[in-house]
Amino acid sequence: MTEEEWNKTKFRCVCSIALAYEHMITYTSEDGRLGFCDHTPKNKNGDFRKGYRHYRIDNKVYKTKEEFLEALKDFSYKVIPIR
Fold first, then answer.
1. How many CA atoms lie within 13 A of 62 on its CB side?
2. How many C-beta atoms surround the C-beta of residue 36 within 10 A?
3. Alpha-helix residue ranges (DSSP H) falling in the chain
4. Tell me, what's the pLDDT at 79?
5. Cα separation of 8 and 66, whole Å?
6. What's the Cα-to-Cα distance from 34 to each of 9, 50, 74, 79, rounded to whole Å?
7. Domain count, the chain
8. Over the Cα atoms of the chain, what is R_g?
9. pTM of the predicted protein model
């Protein structure tokens, strides 16, 4: 899959949580194989800090966009057999 195909993929929000120290929102593709999670940390005074994103392909999480894009090159929408 290319980065352009990734950008055209439709995602939906599946989870949102607000904690005292961080807000998180998780998105997944329609088939559930691709996803990402946006994290927004909070300071003790309640101000938000710069957020970051984790990416997911199947059950593998990638903490950097570069790592994710490299793994995305090998990803295809082939059917995974259920065992």
1. 16
2. 19
3. 3-8, 65-72
4. 55
5. 18
6. 9, 24, 13, 14
7. 1
8. 15
9. 0.81
Q: Examine residue 77 and state whether it is found in any structural domain, yes or no.
A: no
Strand order in the sheet with 22-29: 11-18, 22-29, 34-41, 52-57, 60-62
**Within-domain flag for 80:** no
What pLDDT is recorded for position 12? Answer: 96
Pairwise CA distance, residues 52 & 71, whole Å? 19
Give the amino acid at 55. Y
| Residue pLDDT tens, the chain, 83 long | 888 888 888 999 999 999 989 999 999 998 888 999 999 999 888 889 999 999 999 989 999 999 999 999 888 766 555 55
Could you write out the DSSP letters of every residue in 23-72?
Answer: EEEEEEETTSSEEEEEEEEB-TTS-B---EEEEEETTEEESSHHHHHHHH
d(CA 3, CA 55): 13
Q: Is residue 83 a part of any domain in this protein?
A: no
Whole-angstrom Cα distance, residue 38 to residue 53?
5
